[in-house]
Design goal:
Strand order of the largest sheet: 2-1-6-7
Strand content: 35-45%
Number of domains: 1
CATH topology: SH3 type barrels
Pfam family, one: SspB
Radius of gyration: 13 Å
Distance between the termini: 36 Å
Number of strands: 7
Number of helices: 1
Structural class: mainly beta
InterPro entries: SspB, SspB-like_sf
GO cellular component, one term: ribosome
CATH class: Mainly Beta
Organism: Vesicomyosocius okutanii subsp. Calyptogena okutanii (strain HA)
CATH architecture: Roll
Protein name: Stringent starvation protein B
Length: 112
């Protein structure tokens, strides 16, 4: 199986947006069973996450997943997103970004 280029592009785009003083956001498909996000912020099976260094703790973008801790409603939450569940990464200030094809994966695993 060929290695996906998506995690490399996500890491590169993340670095570019921060170097350009922009704010990187990802759009996540929450129908993937291993997505762990606070469910109260999901809309139409999607969630937008700010992945800027100043908004996350311990951000890791591996070849398989993206994980970090962030505050939601003043509570520190662990976030876990498989790379395949990321629909796009973009700069919130201008909407410029990259879009990725995702596979359909049912079953939600969310935090209350």
């Amino acid at each position: 199986m060929m290695l996906s280029i998506a995690p490399y592009l996500i890491r590169a785009y993340h670095a570019w947006t921060e170097d350009a003083k922009l704010t990187p956001h990802i759009l996540v498909d929450c129908t993937y069973s291993s997505v762990i996000v606070p469910k109260q912020f999901i809309q139409q099976n999607k969630i937008v996450l700010n992945i800027a260094s100043n908004a996350t703790y311990n951000l890791i973008i591996s070849n398989d997943n993206l994980s970090f801790k962030a505050r939601f409603s003043k509570k520190l939450i662990n976030i876990f997103v498989p790379i395949n569940a990321i629909n796009s990464i973009y700069a919130s200030e201008n909407g410029k970004g990259m879009f990725f094809k995702t596979e359909e994966k049912p079953n939600l695993k969310l935090l209350d």
